[in-house]
Design goal:
The chain has 268 residues and is an alpha/beta fold. 35% of the residues lie in helices and 16% in strands. The longest helix is centred in the middle third of the chain and has 15 residues. The protein is globular.
């Protein structure tokens, strides 16, 4: 049984309804990308709540640091695409960002959705699922982001429920420096996987998160040899999901977590 399956055994209710340890061993992590981003405005309360209703194992989200050193849940470093505002996120305070519309871009029905702090999402999801927190802060904020993140997770006593990832190895190095026990995953989209494995080893990471185009039997075997789990992104087609599950990935990251129920039931 892999480490991912072993951790899921500890979740309340996982073995309810007649499931067995053998079933769990064949399971894979159902990870909701930015909440249920395919059917709700990404990174909003309704997107996270929809993912929780579906019953995912983990929710992926992005964080950055505000001007007043608060961790805010936003993907883009510049406002304007999903949030009705302008300028760099780091130039605004949390209160300024909270007052901006983060839902109308998706549908006018979500005009009441605002920007969330990571603390608010931790409260919303506590005891209901794990989080994959991706650091999107620019280079000048890596250290402060790591410090604030480690402090927040310590205060909430939820270090083991949060997996920290990034494409920026410097950001992850800052996390490892301030938090020896942090769970870390290396995000990757380059064809040179040797560097991904090297970075994972240097950071004492538990997982790599490659783009799904990079996932092969060879990658799965190389990761397993190094004790690394493989969670792949962003997979939105059922046919692709099936292939990746057959290859042996530990987790799928998708904008459409609604699909997971069909896939998992077909393999139990």
């Amino acid at each position: 049984m892999g480490r991912a399956a072993q951790r899921r055994l500890g979740r309340p209710g996982l073995l309810d309804g007649g499931s067995t340890i053998g079933d769990v061993a064949r399971m894979w992590l159902r990870i909701a990308h930015r909440g249920a981003a395919g059917t709700r405005p990404e990174l909003t309360e309704v997107a996270f709540e929809r993912a929780l209703e579906i019953g995912v194992d983990m929710i992926e989200l992005d964080v950055q640091l505000t001007r007043d050193r608060q961790l805010v849940v936003l993907h883009d470093t510049e406002l304007g695409r999903t949030v009705a505002g302008s300028g760099p996120v780091r130039d605004h305070t949390l209160e300024e960002l909270r007052g901006l519309d983060a839902g109308s871009w998706f549908d006018a029905a979500y005009a009441d959705q605002g920007v969330l702090s990571l603390a608010e999402v931790l409260e919303q999801t506590a005891g209901r699922t794990q989080l994959n927190v991706e650091i999107k802060s620019p280079r000048q904020d890596w250290r402060d982001t790591a410090v604030e993140l480690a402090q927040l997770l310590d205060e909430r006593q939820c270090n083991q429920a949060v997996l920290v990832s990034s494409f920026s190895m410097g950001a992850l190095a800052a996390v490892r420096e301030v938090s020896p026990t942090a769970r870390i995953a290396v995000l990757w989209h380059e064809p040179n996987l040797v560097d991904a494995y090297r970075n994972a080893e240097q950071l004492a990471a538990e997982a790599i998160h490659p783009h799904y185009h990079l996932v092969t039997e060879r990658l799965i075997a190389a990761a397993a040899k190094r004790g690394l789990e493989v969670n792949t992104w962003t997979v939105n087609k059922v046919s692709t999901m099936r292939k990746l599950i057959d290859l042996g990935v530990d987790g799928l990251i998708s904008d459409y977590p609604e699909i997971y129920a069909e896939l998992r039931s077909a393999r139990l």
